[in-house]
Amino acid sequence: MLTLYLPIVIYFTISLLVCFGIMGASRVIGRPKRQQSVAKLQPYESGIVPEVQLGPKFSIKFYLVAMLFLIFDVEAVSFYPWAVLMRQLRLYGLAEMGLFILVLGIGYAYVWKRGGFQWDR
Amino acid sequence: MNLPLIVPPQVAFSLISPDLALLVTSVVILAVALFLAPEQGIRWLAWLAAAGILVAAGSDVILLLGSQLPATTFSGSLVMDPLAEVLDLVILAAALLAVLLAANRPEASPDYLALTLWSAIGMMVLVSAHDLIVLFLAVEVLSLPLYILCAFRPDRPTSLEAAVKYFLLGAFSSGFLLYGLALLFGVSGGTNLTQVAAALATVGSASLFGHGAIGTALIAEVGIGLVVVGLGFKLAAVPFHQWVPDVYEGAPTSVVTFMSVGTKVAAFGVLARLVDTVFVGSAVDWQGLLSALAVATILAGAVLAIPQQNFKRLLGYSGILNAGYLVAVLVVGSQAATAAGVYFLVTYALMNLGAFAVISAVSGGEMEGVMIRRYRGLFYQQPWTAVAMAVFLLSLASIPPLAGFFGKLFILQALISGHQLVLALTVVAGTAITLIVYGRPLLAMFSPPDPDSPPLPKMPMAVATAIGCLAVAVVAVGLVPGAIVGLVHGVSQIGPLSGISGR
User: Fold this and answer.
1) Is B3 on the interface with A (CB under 8 A)?
2) Per the domain annotation, does A77 fall within a domain?
3) Which end of chain A is more exposed for a tag (fewer CB within 10 A), N or C?
4) Are A110 and B34 within 8 A, CB to CB?
């Protein structure tokens, strides 16, 4: 049984070796830190020197919208299994889905009322 | 396309009526809040939540007194037995107090109430879980609202810190739990605990150099270990306790009140069920695992509690310590021991809820209010509050004749009759150390007050009533320990017993 996992063990060993090997090689072959130039310490932008300060502030609105989208998107996935089995589940499935949509709808209305979908607040 | 015939699960709605009551209440709260301005009517909503909790508790009591228990529902994935119902009552008490404490606080909002109720539902499902998937889902339903609740004072950096810490470590522990459950599923080929137990009973003890199906035994052992680690985070067992003091310090006191008792009850309930149904029949060395956890938790919790200056941190370490007692009593593995654990948990809930209610009332939501030095001279300013707090602290220190003493006594009895002498000695040592821990705030309360300390906030009527009831309960249970012993004997029958088919 355990022999089944032997490839995984080998894989892990090799990946660890590669990981530490590359890090060790760059330490041995590469120049010491004090000789590094300013350009090397900057974020890599495909060889082009960055002209603006990287890491500017961006609005947290995107984050909220993305999260709300994700929540309702994932909830919508729950419809698929029901849709596939709709005829088998009959009234039971319909009632369950109705309840699900009701709870989801109240959540949606609550987010709406609290201004979760308002862009400029 | 031929699809397998799906049979909808048989659902006995009367058995899950407490959970349904909370669910309906939470949805109604959110729906009503749609028509109210943000700051308006929060008190009415809090009363609505309290009413929902009381309805749930009422249906719990009806189930306990009725003849339906023990029974299973949802195709055997939920089991309703006296153990689950009694623990449900403790969870509901914690939720009720959280709602009462929050009613006059900045954290009060419809979201707060709904999240508290949802978390309580997760806890109640967890103590009834009889299926690996239901178990994991319940842990998540329990935890996710708590992560959010910890951040309910966004004006304080510590509240956000608590939420992030709790979330990261909680997510991490969920990973352990899920991995462990997956391994158990892999060994047994089923998710129902009955199937898992049957599979583990045939697995030999794990030994790399022995004969037989080494792989399966090893997987079972690792699976059980990972599940214990995952639940150990929730139970706040050492070495999975690092989040506890920071979260207790930073999160709003009403939230800490709820989660300190609720999470512990839920984690104990599910661990007791796992021990009773799965671990006891297996050849895996689960007793050694739990013993080590218990000894580490008791000693570390007791010693680390000594230097604390912050009352909430102190009670956090006290919670770790008491989690150690609960793990210790589970090592015995008999139903009588589980009953002793439940008795202890009931008494612990009474005194811990009381202590946190006093802290919440005295601090008035101020960060400075939770320092122990703030309690200097409490007796001269609010004598009854100080007396109630003294009752809670003395009971936590297991001074007879208060409730905590008998809780500890039954645990010691169970340990000694189970021949766990090392654990019994550790429990005694932990109790001895806690005399120092709880003695310091006691001394502070009865020493003369600082002349320049600000006046204490006025206590809301509902909170004062709750504190009074809890203090009376702690004394009454201590004076008449038999009052809930009968209840606990009923608990000692964990379902589903052999008479019930696991459908």
Assistant:
1) yes
2) yes
3) C
4) yes
